[in-house]
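Re: that backbone. Tokens:
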């Protein structure tokens, strides 16, 4: 009985390890995003804490709607909701594919499985986070005056 329990726990931990990888999380996020109806996201109230507190959109306001619009095949709506939605979807797919490839290659007999945090650590040490912060800030500084003057309507 304890042998079967140990095997079950081992399989459970391996499954949890695979499901927690960036590739699995990116795929899950894209599947959920493509399943969400865009009308449901656009007709509901804002849940952004920054916007609820200040009345102003945050740098990321519209990213979810943008990604979902792109996943539904509407690039014009995606660009309207947030210009960085498409690059974020592309980055999620790229991170997922690189991680899936790394995981697949490490599953060869005699090799240890690669750590999912290794890819994320390499990304964190690269200029990518600073480029993302700079791009979000730049887009926000362009969109904020448009929102305040009523030219941007979300």
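Recovered sequence:
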């Amino acid at each position: 009985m304890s042998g079967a329990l140990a095997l079950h726990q081992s399989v459970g931990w391996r499954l949890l390890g695979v499901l927690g990888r960036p590739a699995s999380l990116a795929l899950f996020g894209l599947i959920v995003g493509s399943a969400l109806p865009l009308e449901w996201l656009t007709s509901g109230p804002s849940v952004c804490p920054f916007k609820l507190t200040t009345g102003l959109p945050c740098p990321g306001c519209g990213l979810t709607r943008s990604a979902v619009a792109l996943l539904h095949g509407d690039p014009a709506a995606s660009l309207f909701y947030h210009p960085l939605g498409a690059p974020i979807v592309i980055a999620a797919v790229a991170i997922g594919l690189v991680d899936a490839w790394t995981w697949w290659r490490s599953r060869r007999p005699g090799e240890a499985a690669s750590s999912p945090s290794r890819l994320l650590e390499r990304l964190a040490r690269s200029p990518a986070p600073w480029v993302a912060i700079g791009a979000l800030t730049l887009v926000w500084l362009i969109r904020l005056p448009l929102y305040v003057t009523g030219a941007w309507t979300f």
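The chain has a mean pLDDT of 81. The radius of gyration is 20 Å.
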